[in-house]
Design goal:
Shape of chain B: elongated
Strand content of chain B: 5-15%
Number of helices of chain A: 9
Oligomer: heterodimer
Low-confidence stretches of chain B: none
Helix content of chain A: 25-40%
Shape of chain A: flat
Structural class of chain A: mainly alpha
Radius of gyration of chain B: 23 Å
Order of helices and strands of chain A: HHHHHHHHH
Largest sheet of chain A: none
Distance between the termini of chain A: 60 Å
Largest sheet of chain B: 5 strands, mixed
Mean pLDDT of chain A: 80
Strand content of chain A: under 5%
Chain lengths: 174, 298
Amino acid sequence: MKYFVVIIVALFSAFIMADLFFAPPAAPLRQGSRFFRHQLHGENIGLECAACHQGAEVLDHAYMPSKSDCLACHRLPLTEGPMAESLDSAFADDTYPFYNWNVKSKLPEHVVFHHGVHAKAKVSCEDCHGSRYKDDLYGGEKFTMKFCTDCHQGKTFSTKNFRTAAVYCGACHR
Amino acid sequence: MERRCFLKIMGTLTASFMLFGCRLEGIFKSAEKQVSNSIDFANRVAKEVKQALSKSGESSLFSLNLVKVTMPGEMNPPMPVLSRNRFGMAIDLDLCNGCGECIYACNLENNIPLVTQEESAKGRFLHWISMVDGVPVMCGHCSFAPCEKVCPTGAATHTPDGLSTMVYKRCAGSRFCGANCPINARKFNYNNAQELGLSYQFNPKVPLRTAKVMEKCSLCIQRLQDDRLRHKTVLDSEWDGRGVKTACAAACPKKAITFGNWLNPESELVKVARGREIYAPKALAHLDPSVVYLKGKR
């Protein structure tokens, strides 16, 4: 009995030690967002969402920018600000990931949402995504089918005069 | 059982669950289904298509029995949303030689799962196109679709463009639609193909279906709707589906299958069908199908 307990305890601690020392490090919740502030890039320097999130106005998907998209502006060094140094060193570092933001769309596979069509119908990004991004609060939107169909039937956004849109199943579902 | 013995067993069980419970996935990883690459899987699909072609004579549940119909026109009864499109296909039986390329192309386009050995031995396949008397038969996308009338969950619906669509997530697997389809165009997915390693996502635009769901030809709705969205955003012109082809029509080596818009007199489909004798399976003829057969009189 004694040996038995010893073996169990030894195994237990061995597993814990293995997890502590050999397991891959826990991934941070929002990877890489520490360098980026929507506040500094948005309205105050006149950037549209689609300037970085390419495809937000024409394609089905609004993509996340890559390192080279950032460097398109940041080739020129920042002259002021407390973040300037860390930014410059991060871009100079070749091991810095090229695709920094690994955001996977939460849109289920059987639903089609085309950003371009909505932009064409003069629905702005904030109408669905809210203005929380200006305050640098990322994620957490909860889109339901009701949210979509209410607007498509003209029940919500009555002041914005959006056109009503298709509500037959095959329009959005595959 | 003694109290001490019972406590010992329970203690061992608790301890082993605490130790191994979260690691079961790792322990049983070796038993995981084999991951095949797309080329291997495409070969398996091609093999199954050949098998289906060789078995097509044995187990057809209905005889084709083509009868003459008129050219499909406006949807009848009219849809609540008006549309100037009604998509359909015409299969030229003077050109078709029953090679089965359309079935293969359809399987890859729509990620149609394979079936198990027992099922294929019985001649049961999930292919959306089946060969009946050497003629490819798929869903007719009828105006008076009998399958849609009996769906208890509303998974089978019509689009204003004349497609009979399936919302797979709504399907509860009652199989009423399959029983009400006169040509057995609807296939029921008995197995969980993803778990058995029988499905592969060749086309990311078409989701893989889960088990216990009715499947059928969608007239490649993903191609149509993508083109519609592209027109709305980039080209900004009236969309009539010109230039879109279903997978089977694009793959047909004899160009026997023509896809198009029945309501546009300038579409390829109407041009092909004009002046020809138009046929449909007798079981479908009174339901005003959008998919018809052409024969004779050029």
